[in-house]
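Appendix B. Chain record.
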Amino acid sequence: MFVLVIMAELDTKNPQRCIEDCTEILLAQSQPYQEMLVDSDTLLYHYTDVNGLLGIVQSNTLWATEAAFLSDPVEMHYSARLIKQVIDDYCAKNPYDLATEQLEHMRMLPTHTAYNDVFREHVGQDVYPHRPEEAYAIISFSLNDDSILLWREYADKGNGYALALTRTTLDGKLRSGTMTIGQDFIRRVLYQPEQQTTLINDVLTTFLNYYREHNLEFGTVWQALDNELKTLLPVLKSHYYAQENEARYIGKMSNMMNWSLPKVADENKSDIEAMDVIFSAESGVVVPLIRMKPIDGGPIPIQEIVIGPSLNQDMAEIGLRRLCDRYHYPGSIRIKRSEVPYRSHL
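C-alpha cells predicted for this chain:
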C-alpha cells in the first residue's frame, strides 16, 4: 500500500506536478521502479564494429534507432499488451471504485488517451505503424563490459569495440537538430514478467491513489498517468533478451514525421552531413537512424573504450590512442582489453 502525503495548494490542472509527486512516491516505495533507474556514474557500454566507432568519433555523433526497427520483432508490442492487461485486471478487480469508473470512461474515449493512442497503435495492429506521430529514438547500451554474447552479436564477432558513457554525460545532454526531443531519459530494461507487472501496478496504483487523495480533475491525473505509462513502453522486454542486460538512452521524438531533407546552409557540407535522419541498410531492410550530438558542442563524452577479444589488441590500442588524439579526446579516456578467450574465425 502506498502512503501519500497531502500537498497544500495543489494545482488541480497541472499534470507535471502530479508526475513529480507520484515519481517521488515511486522512488521511495517501488522496488522495480528503483531497479529501472541507472546511477549517475554507472558505466554504460555501447558495442559496435570498427566502422561504428569511427562514425561516432569522426562525426561526433551517436546514432539512435527508431524503436520500430530494433532487433526485437515485438518491441513495444510486448510492453503495450502487458500494460493493457494490467489496466484491464485492475478495473475488473475494482469495479465500484470511483477511480476505476473514471479510468473506464477515459478508456472509452476515441482519442487522446493512453489506452487508445498508445495501445491501439501498438497492440491493435499486426504491423508497427509506419508514420507514428510520436516515436522513440533508442541508443542501446549494456551494463556488461565484456560479454561474449554482445561481442558476437553487435561488435563484428569480437572484432569491434565497446564505448562506455555514463548517465550523467547522456541524460539531457543530446540534441538532434530540427527533430524535437520532447523528453529524454536513461533506463535499465526489465525482463522478468513478475517484475514488469509489479512495476505497472505500482505506477497505476500510485497515480489513482493520488487522484483519490487530492482534489484533482481526473483528466489531469490521466494525462500524467498516460505520460508515465508511455515511458515504460521502451523498457519492458521479453525475458529471452535478459542476457543483454540492456540500458537505454530514450528520446521521445514529437515530430518524427518530418523526414524531408533540409536545405544545406553551409555549402561545404554534403546533403548527408546536413540531415538529422539518414538511412542504413540492415539485412536488406532500410532503417532510419537519428543523428544525436552533444548540446554543448564538445566531443561525445566517452569515458572508456574496451577492445574486442578477436583483434590484435596491441595494434588496436595504438590506433585508438591516435584516433582520440586527432579528434581532441582527453587523455583520461581509459582503454581496456577484453579478457574473453574467443576466436572469431572459427
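Further analysis of this model is presented in Appendix C.
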